[in-house]
Amino acid sequence: MFWSYYFYLCCHVTDLTNLDNQAVLQEYVRYKTEINPVKPKTLKTQLGRISVFSKDVNKPFKDVTEDDVLNHLKRFKPSSRNAVLTSIKSLYRWFYDLDKNDKLPDCIRRIQPLKIEHDEVKRRERIVTDGEYQKLLDNAYTPMHKAMLETLYTFGVRANELLSINSDGVTYDGTFTRITVRTSKTETRDIIHKGRCNYLMTYVESYQPFKDQSGKPLLIGYQQKRFTIDGLEQFIKSLCKKLELKLITPHDFRHTSISRDRANGVPITHIETKHGLVHGSQVMKIYDHNKTKDYEDWLNGKITETEETYETLKRKNEQLVAVEKEKYDKIDKVNTHLFDKIKYLEHRMEDMTHAREQELDSAEREAKLQKEYTEKFAKENPEKHAKVLELVKALQDLGLKVA
Q1: How many CB atoms are located within 10 Å of the residue 195 CB?
Q2: Which domain holds residue 381?
Q3: DSSP percent split of the chain into helix, strand, coil, nearest 5
Q4: Which tens digits make up the pLDDT trace of 248-276?
């Protein structure tokens, strides 16, 4: 597996016009795969950026000037420019065998990332309001879609984390709903929510196709395969368009969850644990001894209760009504099926009874006709009839049955 990927990456740079740079990049690939390995996806992204840079400057890396780098960076938007700059700096740090605090070469040393000013209004627009979330839930197409929306909104998971959950990766113990994400940007982890996630648990208990099977996907799409990120994004996009809402992405639910936890006073370390975030500083690492169990204890010991409002009570009532309606619809469907089955059996019994009655009537008519014929024959031919009776008696004496 490793060598096939290694040769693929080497082939990825064969179109470079500068052979010296090609050899350098192949060594860089070897370093990043054997000596200081990174994730294949990360290496592929970095290599793509450096390959474009090499073709653009069209000279050996050691001869590149500061103007060459600046001219190349002009091609990109600010956020992309910063990512490309980071990849180029990583290459030169390896190229000259520099430590983290060593000075970079002149061609790259003075170039700094651009400061990106975030539009606070646009950032707030990424928050999914309670009303928008409720509209999405009310109009979601299937129980699985409702479960996906509730999981995104409640747990704030990344899209790939949501879709990595297996059929046995969701539990409710009467206090906490717990999910296990198997694919993550940081690490595999359990995430908990105090209370029952009704739509998620209804899907898990009643609708998921691989119930009680381990290793199978919880959320499925075409041909019973694991649901895709493209499918998730398209589902939410089409629902927003149908309801005439702003465009909401799966990642917006993550923004919402983190913002909500911050507003509710959840400690930063617990927010990091819940959302799979890398701690922001050395101080955070020193004081962070919190994992899922500590977060669970904190939730259990939380004293301050949020006062219920008319809107929250109304929303809870609507959720309960929706869950109960789903249950009654399912029961009604089963009852309808049973009623149809009983009707069919009743009609079948009537048909069989009628057929049996016809058989009995036919046998009675045949016996009556035979009796009438015998009486008529005996009356018209008494001598022959007597001889027939004698013959029948003689045959019966011999042990033979005569009809």
Answers
A1: 11
A2: 313-394
A3: 65, 5, 30
A4: 999 899 888 888 888 788 888 888 888 88
